[in-house]
Each structure stands twice: as structure tokens, then as C-alpha cells.
User: What shape does this take?
Amino acid sequence: MTKFSYQNELDDFKATAHWLALRGWSEAAGGNMSIRLDAQNNFLSKLHEDDHIKLPVDVPYLAGKAVLLTGSGTRAREIGVDPLPHIGLYKISDDGRYYGWIAGNETPSMELPAHFAIHNALEQHRPGDKAILHTHPASLIALCHVDGFDNAKTISDKILSMQSEARLILPEGIGFVEHELPGSLELGLKSAKLLERHHLVLWQCHGLLATGDSLAGAFDKLEVFEKSARVYWQLRAAGIDPAGISETEIKHTLKAFGRLERY
Ligand code: 13P
Ligand code: ZN
Assistant: This one.
């Protein structure tokens, strides 16, 4: 196996996978992660025509860039111990229509279409977010089975009103994609559109997709949403359907911290 050395990124994969496994959010091979690289060095320029694989969607904003992506079937609990064998390095062609494997794990996550489509949107709209994290937390999947929790507004307003700072960290709320085939381009394209503005997208009855400046940053936002969902579930288990913090209070808090325009 050709090796590569992106030590900071590998450390980010390792630490994040460790915590995903510990929290039970990425069971078995559930979930996947990627980090976008600028790829301005010689090692990464060698994507030969013969190695070109057609992308399911053009990604013009990724032209000439590279992505580190977890392999399909890889386990968070193993990535968290030794990330290198589980992560592949892929280069995007200079016209943004092809990609090729460069080094590391050779079997990309089945969510490759989503990761590439989302990185393309992030590079265009929110270039500071270089990392994408997808995982399957039970408390978030369970939300999708509640009557009426079938849209972004209802879920955002209810769940992010459980705790005083949740909406402050996620003023835009979350995005929501109705059930789509795992690994499909539709899932990727719908998510990419929502992530132009949001940092989290809930995939109905599947899991969550988070973006951040790093995987640790994406994990932060996932943690905030998941904590709020757990507060909700604890109250429901106690027989309480919580009203949550009022909209007036939420807006007051956002205004005090200068984030009301993102609400
Ligand atoms: P991969 O192992 O192919 O990344 O698939 C896991 C998953 O969660 C798909 O949504
Ligand atoms: Zn999944």
C-alpha cells in the first residue's frame, strides 16, 4: 500500500473516530469521514489519465484538489487506534470531472458522491469548513420517528430550545433530508445544497452529517445537537413533552451575542 503523511489530518481522523466509537455513534462500519486538502505539492500532481474515474457529478470547485476519505466498511473503533490503513487519498482532476486514487485505502466509502458534492459546495460557499463527518447517533435517528418531526424547522425549533446555548452554536438550525438511498447522489446533492448555510444535516432515519474546520470541529456541533436531543428524550422518558425555551428568549440570546441575523 502506498503510504502518505498528513499527520495533522490523520490525528484528527484518529481522535474523532475514537470518540465516535466510544459514544456508540458509529456502530460496525456505520459512518464515514473526509478532509479536503489544497494539494499544491508535487506528490499530489500525479493523477494520470489512465487512473481517471468519472465522478457522478462535476465538482469544479475541487479541481486539482485532494480529499482524504475513509474506506468503505472501515470501523470507527479501528480507525481510532490506527487510522492509516483505513483512509484513502484521492485527487480530483484539473477539470473537476474525474477523480483518482493516489494512496492508502483503495475502496472509498459508499458515500463518496455525498462527500465530493458537499466539499464542492463548501469550497464555494464556506471554504473554512474542510471536514465532513457522517455518523449514526441513536438519539438523533429516533427523532425521525416522532410524529411531525419530518422537517428542519420543527426539529430545529423543538430540539435546539432544550438548552440555552444550543441555538447560539447552531443559529441556522439544522437541515433535513427526507429518506434517500444510502450512498446515492440525490442524498449528496440535497445535503450539499443545505450545507451552503447549515453545519448539520439530519438524514431521515439514517444519521447525521456535520461539517467543520476540522473533524473535531464538526464533532463539536454534532455533540451540541445530540446533547439537546438527549435532554428531549430524557424528558419524554419521564412523561414530559417539554415546551422548551420560548422563541422570545432564544431571539434575545442570539441578539445579545450578535447572531440573530443567522436565525
Ligand atoms: P461506508 O462504510 O461505505 O462508509 O458506509 C457507511 C455508511 O454509514 C453509509 O451511509
Ligand atoms: Zn450512514
Observations:
- Residues 7-262 form a domain with the L-fuculose-1-phosphate Aldolase fold (CATH 3.40.225.10).
